[in-house]
Design a protein that fits this description.
The protein has about 140 residues and is mostly helical. It contains 4 helices and no strands. Helix 2 packs antiparallel against helix 3, helix 2 crosses helix 4 and helix 3 (about 120-125) packs across helix 4 (about 130-144). About 5% of the residues are buried.
Length: about 140
């Protein structure tokens, strides 16, 4: 083998190895570019996810605030209902006392008798005995 042929082989070998290195470099940069694109896509997706999380957080805060406001309104309404209930019970008690007053019972019995209701019916309606109803009617006749 001659010196020229060794040099030619050596140059060919170096050129071939440079070509292989160049192919590896090109493949490496192509894969690096794909990795960068994937990384950019992941960063974009992550920022989109963070925006959605932030939006969900704000919506949740609004819901909690709205819930607190509704709870306060319900508590106020409950208090007002309790006050009205107490007032209505007081009025009902007064009405029951009025209904059980002797003058009111006398008026019911006299007006009922004038409309033709019987003594037993009037006694049952007023919760008085038959004798009490008759006594009230006799007193009313005596006053006329």
């Amino acid at each position: 083998m001659s010196l020229m042929s060794i040099d030619a082989w050596f140059i060919s070998l170096l050129t071939l190895s440079e070509f292989v290195i160049l192919v590896f470099l090109i493949l490496f940069f192509v894969r690096l570019r794909k990795s960068e694109d994937l990384l950019n896509k992941l960063q974009t997706d992550q920022s989109s996810l963070l925006k959605k999380i932030d939006l969900n957080s704000r919506i949740e805060e609004e819901l909690v605030a709205s819930f607190r406001q509704r709870q306060a309104e319900l508590a106020e309404l409950d208090q007002r209902l309790e006050e009205r209930r107490d007032r209505l019970l007081e009025i009902l008690k007064q009405a029951e006392e009025f209904c059980r007053s002797p003058q009111f019972l006398r008026q019911i019995i006299v007006s009922g008798h004038r409309r033709g209701q019987s003594i037993p019916t009037l006694a049952k309606a007023t919760g008085l005995s038959r004798d009490e109803v008759e006594l009230i009617l006799e007193q009313a006749r005596g006053e006329l």
